[in-house]
Design goal:
CATH topology: Collagenase (Catalytic Domain)
Strand order of the largest sheet: 2-7-8-5-3-4
Number of helices: 5
Distance between the termini: 28 Å
Bound molecules: zinc ion
CATH class: Alpha Beta
Shape: globular
Helix content: 25-40%
Largest sheet: 6 strands, mixed
CATH architecture: 3-Layer(aba) Sandwich
Radius of gyration: 16 Å
Number of strands: 9
Protein backbone atom coordinates (compact mmCIF):
# COMPACT_ATOMS: atom_id res chain seq x y z
CA UNK A 1 0.00 0.00 0.00
CA UNK A 2 2.99 2.25 0.38
CA UNK A 3 4.34 1.62 -3.04
CA UNK A 4 4.67 4.77 -5.02
CA UNK A 5 4.47 5.08 -8.71
CA UNK A 6 6.27 7.70 -10.65
CA UNK A 7 4.04 9.30 -13.21
CA UNK A 8 6.25 11.67 -14.99
CA UNK A 9 9.54 10.64 -16.39
CA UNK A 10 10.58 13.55 -18.50
CA UNK A 11 12.09 12.74 -21.86
CA UNK A 12 11.57 15.70 -24.12
CA UNK A 13 9.13 18.23 -25.82
CA UNK A 14 8.23 21.40 -27.73
CA UNK A 15 4.81 22.71 -27.37
CA UNK A 16 2.29 23.40 -29.91
CA UNK A 17 0.94 26.86 -29.74
CA UNK A 18 -2.74 27.54 -29.71
CA UNK A 19 -5.69 27.81 -27.43
CA UNK A 20 -5.76 25.40 -24.55
CA UNK A 21 -9.41 25.81 -23.90
CA UNK A 22 -11.06 23.34 -26.24
CA UNK A 23 -10.73 20.94 -29.07
CA UNK A 24 -7.54 19.13 -28.15
CA UNK A 25 -7.10 16.17 -30.47
CA UNK A 26 -5.70 13.20 -28.56
CA UNK A 27 -4.50 10.44 -30.87
CA UNK A 28 -4.10 7.01 -29.29
CA UNK A 29 -2.05 4.05 -30.42
CA UNK A 30 -2.17 0.71 -28.61
CA UNK A 31 0.25 -2.20 -28.68
CA UNK A 32 -2.51 -4.29 -27.13
CA UNK A 33 -5.78 -2.42 -27.00
CA UNK A 34 -8.01 -2.46 -23.94
CA UNK A 35 -11.58 -3.71 -23.90
CA UNK A 36 -14.07 -1.22 -25.27
CA UNK A 37 -15.49 -0.81 -21.77
CA UNK A 38 -12.08 0.12 -20.35
CA UNK A 39 -11.53 2.64 -23.11
CA UNK A 40 -14.88 4.30 -22.52
CA UNK A 41 -14.25 4.53 -18.78
CA UNK A 42 -10.83 6.01 -19.48
CA UNK A 43 -12.20 8.70 -21.77
CA UNK A 44 -15.00 9.60 -19.38
CA UNK A 45 -12.64 9.84 -16.42
CA UNK A 46 -10.09 11.99 -18.26
CA UNK A 47 -12.87 14.28 -19.47
CA UNK A 48 -14.06 14.51 -15.87
CA UNK A 49 -10.60 15.35 -14.53
CA UNK A 50 -10.03 18.03 -17.16
CA UNK A 51 -13.49 19.52 -16.94
CA UNK A 52 -12.55 22.23 -14.46
CA UNK A 53 -9.81 23.42 -16.80
CA UNK A 54 -12.26 24.00 -19.62
CA UNK A 55 -10.25 21.69 -21.87
CA UNK A 56 -12.21 19.41 -24.12
CA UNK A 57 -10.68 16.31 -25.63
CA UNK A 58 -11.48 14.89 -29.05
CA UNK A 59 -10.45 11.25 -28.77
CA UNK A 60 -9.07 9.62 -31.88
CA UNK A 61 -7.10 6.53 -32.87
CA UNK A 62 -3.88 7.09 -34.79
CA UNK A 63 -4.88 4.41 -37.27
CA UNK A 64 -8.08 6.28 -38.03
CA UNK A 65 -6.37 9.59 -38.66
CA UNK A 66 -6.93 10.85 -42.15
CA UNK A 67 -5.42 14.26 -41.59
CA UNK A 68 -8.64 15.99 -42.48
CA UNK A 69 -9.53 17.37 -39.08
CA UNK A 70 -8.20 20.41 -37.31
CA UNK A 71 -7.70 20.81 -33.59
CA UNK A 72 -6.52 23.59 -31.35
CA UNK A 73 -3.71 21.30 -30.25
CA UNK A 74 -2.73 17.72 -30.94
CA UNK A 75 -1.35 15.15 -28.51
CA UNK A 76 -0.11 11.63 -29.25
CA UNK A 77 -0.48 8.86 -26.70
CA UNK A 78 1.24 5.53 -27.16
CA UNK A 79 0.06 2.75 -24.88
CA UNK A 80 2.83 0.20 -24.48
CA UNK A 81 2.39 -3.37 -23.27
CA UNK A 82 -0.97 -4.98 -22.69
CA UNK A 83 -3.87 -2.74 -21.75
CA UNK A 84 -6.18 -5.72 -21.23
CA UNK A 85 -7.66 -6.42 -17.83
CA UNK A 86 -7.99 -10.13 -18.48
CA UNK A 87 -5.45 -12.67 -17.39
CA UNK A 88 -3.65 -13.30 -14.19
CA UNK A 89 -2.86 -10.23 -12.17
CA UNK A 90 0.77 -9.81 -11.21
CA UNK A 91 1.41 -11.28 -7.77
CA UNK A 92 1.31 -8.81 -4.89
CA UNK A 93 5.00 -9.30 -4.25
CA UNK A 94 5.68 -7.88 -7.68
CA UNK A 95 5.26 -4.38 -6.37
CA UNK A 96 8.85 -4.07 -5.30
CA UNK A 97 10.23 -2.95 -2.05
CA UNK A 98 8.85 -0.19 0.05
CA UNK A 99 9.37 3.14 -1.56
CA UNK A 100 10.33 1.72 -4.91
CA UNK A 101 8.88 3.66 -7.76
CA UNK A 102 7.54 2.50 -11.08
CA UNK A 103 7.05 4.72 -14.07
CA UNK A 104 3.52 4.47 -15.36
CA UNK A 105 3.78 7.13 -17.95
CA UNK A 106 6.18 9.57 -19.52
CA UNK A 107 6.11 12.65 -21.67
CA UNK A 108 8.87 13.72 -23.98
CA UNK A 109 10.87 16.83 -23.22
CA UNK A 110 13.39 18.46 -25.49
CA UNK A 111 15.57 21.37 -24.52
CA UNK A 112 13.31 22.03 -21.59
CA UNK A 113 10.18 22.14 -23.65
CA UNK A 114 7.38 19.64 -23.25
CA UNK A 115 6.51 17.80 -26.46
CA UNK A 116 3.00 16.49 -27.13
CA UNK A 117 4.13 12.87 -27.07
CA UNK A 118 3.37 10.64 -24.12
CA UNK A 119 3.67 6.96 -23.41
CA UNK A 120 1.61 4.93 -20.96
CA UNK A 121 3.11 1.72 -19.57
CA UNK A 122 0.05 -0.52 -19.47
CA UNK A 123 1.91 -3.49 -17.98
CA UNK A 124 2.75 -1.34 -14.99
CA UNK A 125 -0.68 0.25 -14.79
CA UNK A 126 -2.32 -3.21 -14.77
CA UNK A 127 -0.58 -4.01 -11.52
CA UNK A 128 -3.07 -1.72 -9.83
CA UNK A 129 -5.73 -4.38 -10.49
CA UNK A 130 -4.18 -6.44 -7.72
CA UNK A 131 -5.81 -4.02 -5.33
CA UNK A 132 -9.26 -5.12 -6.40
CA UNK A 133 -11.06 -7.55 -4.16
CA UNK A 134 -10.69 -11.26 -4.94
CA UNK A 135 -14.28 -11.42 -6.13
CA UNK A 136 -13.94 -8.68 -8.72
CA UNK A 137 -15.57 -9.71 -11.96
CA UNK A 138 -14.63 -8.96 -15.52
CA UNK A 139 -16.67 -5.78 -15.74
CA UNK A 140 -15.24 -4.43 -12.52
CA UNK A 141 -11.70 -5.17 -13.66
CA UNK A 142 -12.30 -3.45 -17.00
CA UNK A 143 -13.68 -0.36 -15.29
CA UNK A 144 -10.84 -0.24 -12.78
CA UNK A 145 -8.23 -0.48 -15.51
CA UNK A 146 -9.97 2.31 -17.39
CA UNK A 147 -9.82 4.54 -14.32
CA UNK A 148 -6.15 3.75 -13.74
CA UNK A 149 -5.24 4.47 -17.35
CA UNK A 150 -7.23 7.70 -17.22
CA UNK A 151 -5.38 9.04 -14.22
CA UNK A 152 -2.01 8.33 -15.81
CA UNK A 153 -3.14 9.89 -19.09
CA UNK A 154 -4.54 12.96 -17.35
CA UNK A 155 -1.26 13.48 -15.53
CA UNK A 156 0.72 13.38 -18.75
CA UNK A 157 -1.82 15.68 -20.45
CA UNK A 158 -1.29 18.06 -17.58
CA UNK A 159 2.42 18.31 -18.46
CA UNK A 160 1.67 18.84 -22.13
CA UNK A 161 -1.26 21.21 -21.89
CA UNK A 162 0.23 23.24 -19.05
CA UNK A 163 3.57 23.24 -20.86
CA UNK A 164 5.46 22.36 -17.73
CA UNK A 165 7.73 19.67 -16.37
CA UNK A 166 6.91 20.75 -12.84
CA UNK A 167 4.91 18.85 -10.28
CA UNK A 168 2.71 20.07 -7.48
CA UNK A 169 2.46 18.87 -3.90
CA UNK A 170 -1.17 17.90 -4.30
CA UNK A 171 -3.67 16.84 -6.90
CA UNK A 172 -3.29 15.49 -10.39
CA UNK A 173 0.02 17.30 -10.79
CA UNK A 174 1.58 15.37 -7.91
CA UNK A 175 4.58 13.30 -9.03
CA UNK A 176 3.60 10.11 -7.23
CA UNK A 177 0.37 8.33 -6.46
CA UNK A 178 -0.30 4.92 -5.00
CA UNK A 179 -1.44 2.08 -7.24
CA UNK A 180 -4.43 1.64 -4.99
CA UNK A 181 -5.43 5.24 -5.60
CA UNK A 182 -5.25 4.71 -9.35
CA UNK A 183 -8.21 2.33 -9.36
CA UNK A 184 -10.31 3.91 -6.63
CA UNK A 185 -13.86 4.72 -7.76
CA UNK A 186 -13.41 8.14 -6.26
CA UNK A 187 -9.95 9.63 -6.17
CA UNK A 188 -9.90 13.09 -4.60
CA UNK A 189 -6.14 13.09 -4.89
CA UNK A 190 -6.54 13.42 -8.62
CA UNK A 191 -9.76 15.36 -8.77
CA UNK A 192 -8.43 18.43 -7.01
CA UNK A 193 -6.12 18.92 -9.87
CA UNK A 194 -6.00 20.50 -13.20
CA UNK A 195 -5.31 24.00 -12.14
CA UNK A 196 -2.94 24.57 -14.96
CA UNK A 197 -2.05 28.03 -13.83
CA UNK A 198 -1.59 27.15 -10.20
CA UNK A 199 1.59 28.76 -8.82
CA UNK A 200 2.69 25.38 -7.50
CA UNK A 201 3.39 24.18 -11.00
CA UNK A 202 5.42 27.15 -12.09
CA UNK A 203 8.76 25.97 -10.80
CA UNK A 204 10.46 23.57 -13.19
CA UNK A 205 11.65 20.39 -11.55
CA UNK A 206 15.38 19.86 -11.35
ZN1 LIG B 1 4.70 14.13 -13.98
Amino acid sequence: MNDLVRLGTILLLPLLTGAQTAGVGVFMQFESAPAAASLEVMKTEVDHLLKASGIEIDWRLVKENHGDESFSRVVFLKFKGSCKSEGAAPPPNDFGTLGETHALGSTQVQNGRVLPYSEVECDQVRKALSYLGPGAGRKERQSALGRAMARVVAHELYHILARTTAHAAVGLARATHSLEELIAPEAPGFASAIEFNHPDVKTPEQ
